[in-house]
Please model this.
Amino acid sequence: MRPALDVSGLTKTYGGGTKALAGVDLQVEEGSIFALLGPNGAGKTTLMRILTTQLRPNAGEARVFGLDTVREGAAIRRLAGYVPQEMSVWTDISGYENLLIYAKIYGVPKPQRDPTIKDALTKMGLDDVRTRLVSTYSGGMIRRLEIACTLLIKPKILFLDEPTIGLDPSARKVVWEELTAFKREHGATVFFNTHYMDEADNYADRIAIIDRGKMVGEGTPEELKRSIGGEVIKLTVVGEAAPQAVVDRLRGMDLVTDLVVAGAELSLVVKDASMALPVVIEAMRERDVAVRRVTMEAPTLDDVFLKYAGTRLEEGGRSVDTRQTRRMIKVG
Amino acid sequence: MTVLESLKNIGVMIELEVRRLRHDRMELWTRAVQPILWIAIYGTIMGNVRGIPTGGLDYKDYITPGVLIQSTTFVSIFYGLTIVWERESGILKRLLVSPVSRSATVIGRSMAAGVRAIFQGLIIIPIALIIGVRFIPNPLYLLGAFVVIFFAAGGFAAISIFIASFFKTRERFMGIGQAITFPLFFTSSALYPLSMMPHVLKEIALVNPVSYVVDAVRGLMISGDLSELPIDILAIAVFLVVMFSVASVSFKRIIE
Model:
């Protein structure tokens, strides 16, 4: 099957010398939901902006349904729906009017316009507020309106940059149910950026992990978790951080497949946690390191991320982004 | 992208503006205050001095087109603020990823400012009538004047979009906007005929599009002298083509 996205050797350096993408390769199958996971500043948005023909890469090429993003941008723009990270609807007209303008821009034929708009409003739960000015909407309602604007035009591929920023868990669920249904009904491809593990885990068919402009891992959520091999022991030591000697000692053990340090927290990947734990604790006690807390679990995407990118995704990111979205609305 | 599609998209951009205006009419009224004061107070007092050769026109009547154009130009030049805001939010990114061509976006958004200018005129002219300004009582002439105002406002809005693609923040844009609006006004024939100007200023006035717009509108609305109209229209047409092209080319850099 022809891939919906085919990216090879993509490099982008900004004017200031910031290297946003350092040779990215990526393939996305048509009709799948694909998540690009990474911390802020990893290059997710840059990649999406190249794919949506907004930016030109410095090297390499990106193809959307075989169309080159640099030379065949106009053709791509007819197939793609796009929701940028920032707010992208007009706040001084109503929700209905926003949809109407987009329907006209994308040439939805007149007889279909009203039913399509009504359908999009109902699906996104905005029917009651359709005549209200968007400036009176909450952040979550605005996000749903933006997604409605995109579903309205029945794109073959959807590019969503952090699609559920500013949404509460129930609204996130509604949005993803609709996106999944849309994908099923129309065979559309969904490509989204996120730094929420659970979102990628629950809704994506495949996930690619990007860090500092490079792809560091790719696969289905299960494959990625399995690639860690075994179970994860998380230890929090007393004090600021574990002494280097202990870390080296643990790393040298046959039982420990992998070890990542994040301040006072150590994550150890082991084959069998219940066998390994006593040995690990004993080794720490020998070096007079006290353990405050221990948990054992099956690997999560967070551990996957930790393994491939060497850091954790920031948990505080969400509230900052919400604030930014809100600021945009206020400015309007 | 066919020509027909582009025209349709320009129409959509204009529709968007009309819809925005419908939700917020206040701005139109507040923007009309200043030009009314120019005509009623400045026009009346300076008219009493009788020091300005207006070719036999009452001074108040003479400056009405100039003040009207100044007011609509001001609105157009600051239309770029809307674009700056749309850049800060994600609206422009989204528009640039839509099938609408860059030039249709630029021309459409520019002509949207033309719509604002027309509404501005529709408010100012009746009030000017009440103040005692005498217009040529021919609806065709008035219609002609509105066509000129509409397109001219589009051209100035294109300048504004061009500026917005270089000065991407509100504050910087405000500064530049202020810095060009008044010189455009004072180096034109809005308040006094070119013959009164010092030589250097006259040269500037000759390349100032405001002069041609004011001249055309004055001929159509007040004096009835259309002898210069073809030249004015030609000048405005050239101005539009140049500004639309320049703004379309610079537009892509706005989101980079």
User: Anything to note?
Assistant: Residues 169-186 of chain A form the longest helix (18 residues). Residues 230-298 of chain A form a domain with the Alpha-Beta Plaits fold (CATH 3.30.70.2470). DSSP finds twelve helices and 14 strands in chain A.
